[in-house]
Structure formats: structure tokens, C-alpha cells
């Protein structure tokens, strides 16, 4: 039996000050042991979702279960690094790590903390306020990793880092996570940053789940196809039923479409290589495309998600 | 497709040690801690100086003055008396600022700044629950504030009582600054300032506005307590006739006015008394037969101090409750666990 790292059911959050829904009716399940990319445009609700899972804010509707418990009950087992990497500016790096040890008395691994920090040529006696963005990220990651979390939530961890530091820190992160079998959920809007390291995708847009599932399964469920335009000028003129069309574009006499095949593709269409980035971009460009959730769903999934799940089971049996 | 049952591996780690949060709270607010310690030490020294050498010198000066009797010229140590008065005023004022200093500090830094910069959330994502975070942020400063303010008001009370009967210009117990600076109610007000600062910080998440709001709210609470003060304990009434004149002096006034022949109470027109014919006519017109004065004598000092302290602490307790409610509505709190964890 696979256990789940995060299970969300009808999860929604509104902020009174901003108004509107930051997140609405989110139902998904994230298996443990995965490295999950949380993708979506700015303002899609990525940070809200991570803060809900970290037990920092309360949901307006629905519920989220983390490592089988309420987010408030699993704090010692969850690591979180928020987008702006808050640290106490008046403490030194060494003091910050000592604080981590004092605040996580049961799980702190000083060796991990030192290893993560050591990579950045950091002076342990330097005050946090004097650190560069990359160094701050490193200290924040050290705090999160050294508590040896079973689930690590990272909100745009590599933003504002140069490519070299990004590559290097990502390596440290993945090595440490692999060592402890940590489940990672990492948000980003830079797909390239995640494509190599992630095996699970959660795409949210406008506060809702658009795509959720194993990356290989998601790629297998879609096909990027090209065929003759046959005089049609607009994508709307095409009817690729019974296949679900996510996006179609007419270029000259050719049509390129991203579809979810419901059976054998029509004759005369060619399948092209589909990357995760293509898949994500096509869904972001077409907010009207129906959401797709692959894999297990929480027990009390809402009807809408259940529909998309049953649609999928049709696909796989077809 | 099977739905996943919640895993039960949730409690494999048995909590053995509690996070050492107080130590880091003190480390993070070390400058404020030093300032507070310095303030308490300097002010304590000043109050000891006031109650000891300054009171002795001023008392001796008053003895010299009294010994002069009706003599046309009198040589006495006037500078000592003036120095006593000045130091008394300054230290009294300084003790009274304690609740506002505490409110300003608590409002500006204790919760608002941490929520503003995200370091509160950083703590909550360590193994520390928001409730514990807030508890430590209330309890540790409360202990230091209570200890510091308690010492200051005790020393002020001692310094003030040392001058009783020796210094003719010493303030009465019912003098507003003296009553508060030398009373336990100021300890409660300082604690209230702390709670107000914490609550406002939780609501606003912004350092500077929270500072201003906290100080203003503490001033408001102070005013409220002071308005309620005369009514917190049954007062004593003194009645005098018109020929005796309006009662003067003595204690904390609750209400005063004139009495009619039917015993009704009317506001005093303050026309100057029976010696003035116009005033006599006014009193006759009002059917006034005498004066009444509701007041608190010195024997009510402790009942008033203690009831005002209780009132202040009750307001503080409500605000503490509100602070935890605000935090809970923000973070969702922790529902009761389905099963208890064996330790």
C-alpha cells in the first residue's frame, strides 16, 4: 500500500484583504516518496497551497491531510522553505543553526546542516543580514533539511539564484532528500528547473487543480499531433472528438494539436515528441481545457474530480 | 482505484524534549532586554536615592523651616526641598511611562515584526506550534515586565512613604501620578500594555502602525481604569452644613455638591459660599441646606489598588484570550487528536 504525503479534498482559501479565491475546490493526492513539481502562473495559488500544507494558514473550506495527519500535528515531520526565505537578520549563521537544533530537539541532524551550509563558502560567524540571496537560501534550506523532514515543501526555492548556484543547490537538495527518502513538493514557474528532478506534477491555475499525476502517466495520456488543415483557418473548425483537445493551432496548411486520445488517432496525423514543458504551457494557455487527475483520489473526492477520474479510467481501458 | 486510508505511521517519533523557545526569544530581543534592565536599574537607584538621602535632606530642611516659626527671616536648605521635588516628579513620571514603553516595544516587535518578515512562520515550521510560540511570547516578557515594574512601584511606594509627615509638600496618596506610580495597579497596566502590543501585532502584522496603535490603546485602557477607579469601592460620604462651608481636603473625590432640605443632591453652583450675599440668595433659591462629599479616605488605598489591579488584569485576560483566538483563526490551530500518543 502506498501512503500519501498530501491529500487535499475540496480545499479552498480566500483572503479577506485581497478578496476572491486564492485556491478553490482543490482535490488531489500526492503519494509519498515523490518529488513533485507544483507549477502554475504567478498568483495561481501555489504559495497558498504550500502554506496550507505547512499548517501556517487555515483553509476556508475543505481539508488537507499531511503525512496522514492534520498539518498542525505533523510539524516536526514537515520542512518548509517559503518564497522570501525569512531568517532572523541579527543572528549569525551558526546561531541560526543552533536555533534550528533547539527548536527541533527530536530530529535535528547537525551534520546535515553543516554539510548544506558548507557548500556555500559561508562564514559561520557572519550575520544573516549580511548574506547574499544565494547564501540565505542555503541557510534556509539547511534549517529545513537538518530537521530530517519526511515531507519538504519548497516555495520557489531557487528563485533569484544564478544558474550555477541553482544547479549546485539542487544537487545538494536532491542528494539529501534521496538519503532520507524525503517527499518533496517544489513550486516554480521555471519548468526547466523541475523537469529533470521531478516525477510528479501538480499544475494549478486560477486556484484550481488543472493537472495532477505521475509525469510519465501524464505525458502518456497526451499526444502532440500534426495533421493537414484541410482549408480550416481557425482551430475551432476542428472537431477531434472523441479525443479531448487541450490546444490546437493552425500554421499554414498544418494543424498542431495537443489531445488526450480516447482511442486510435485518425489516419494522416503524425505524433510528435511531447515534453513536460509543452504539456504545462498548453494547459496554461488554454484555461478552458478540462482538468485531469491521474492516480488515486482522496476518499471523499468531490463529484467534479471524480468525473475526471472516471474519464481517465475510460481512457485507459479504451 | 482505492481510496487511501490515512496512514497511522504519524506518531513514530515520540516527542522527548520540548523546543527551547524562551532562550531564543531572549536572544532575539537582547537589545530590548538590556534597555529594560538598564532602565530598571537606573530608576531603582534614583528611587533609592530619593527615598533615602534626598528625603532626609528635604526633611531636615523642613525642620529648619518649621523651627523658624513666625520669624521674618528664615535660613533653611531650600535647594534640598527643590531637588526632592524635581527628582520625585521625574522618577514618578518615568515609572508611569513603563506601561507605554512595554506596549510600544511589544507592539512594534514581539508579534507584528515577526509576522511581517515571516520569521514567525519560520518558527512554526520548526517543531514549534503557533500556540506555543505565542505562549512563550506572552509568558517570558510578562515575567520580566512584572518583575521590573513590580520592583519600581515598590521602591516608589517606599520613597513616597519615607517623606510622609516629614516633607510638607509631599504628594497626597490620592494625587493621580503618586497613586499610580507607587501602586500595584501599574504592574497590571504594564502587563496590559504587553498584551495589547501582542494582540495588535497579531492583527496588523506591521511594525510601525502596531506600535502607535498599541500605545494609543494602552492609553485608552489606562483612562478607562482611571475613570472606573473611584467607583470600584464603596465611597464614604461627608455632609456639612451651609455655615460650615463646603468640605475640603481628604482623599479621592467621587462626587460633591449641595444638599436640599428634602435630601436631594444638586450640583454645586460654586458661587463662593454664604459669605457672599449673591451666593446666599442662589443657595436659598435652590433650597440648599448643606454640602455633601463622596470620597475615598486613605483607608481605601489598598481596596482601590487591588480592585483596579483586578479590573486591569481582567481586561488583560480577555485580550490574551482574543490573541489566541486570532492566532487560531489564522493558523487553523490543532484539533484534538483522534488517539493519544504514548510518551
Characterization of the model:
The complex is a heterodimer of chains A (318) and B (343). In chain A, the strands form three sheets. In chain A, strands 5-6-7-3-8-9-14 form a seven-stranded mixed beta sheet, with helices on both faces. A four-stranded antiparallel beta sheet of chain A has the order 11-12-10-13, covered by helices on one side. In chain A, strands 2-1-4 form a three-stranded antiparallel beta sheet, with helices on one face. Helices cover 30% and strands 27% of the residues of chain A. Chain A has two domains: 4-213, 3-Layer(aba) Sandwich (Rossmann fold), CATH 3.40.50; 217-317, no CATH class. In chain A, strand 1 and strand 2 (21-31) form a beta hairpin. Chain A is elongated. By secondary structure, chain A is an alpha/beta fold. With 343 residues, chain B is of the alpha+beta class. The interface between A and B is large, with 55 and 43 residues.
Q: Strand content of the residues of chain B, in percent? A: 5-15%
Uncertain regions of chain B: pLDDT < 50 for 5+ in a row? 1-14, 338-343
Q: What is the β-strand count of chain A?
A: 14
Shape summary of chain B = flat
How much is the radius of gyration of chain B in Å?
Answer: 28 Å
User: What pattern of helices and strands is seen along the backbone of chain A?
Assistant: EEEHEEHHHEHEHEEHEEEEHEH
State the CATH architecture of the largest domain in chain A.
3-Layer(aba) Sandwich
What composes the largest sheet of chain A? 7 strands, mixed
> Can you tell me the CATH superfamily of the largest domain in chain A?
P-loop containing nucleotide triphosphate hydrolases
Oligomer: heterodimer
Give the fraction of residues assigned to helices of chain B: 55-70%
Low-pLDDT runs of chain A: 300-318
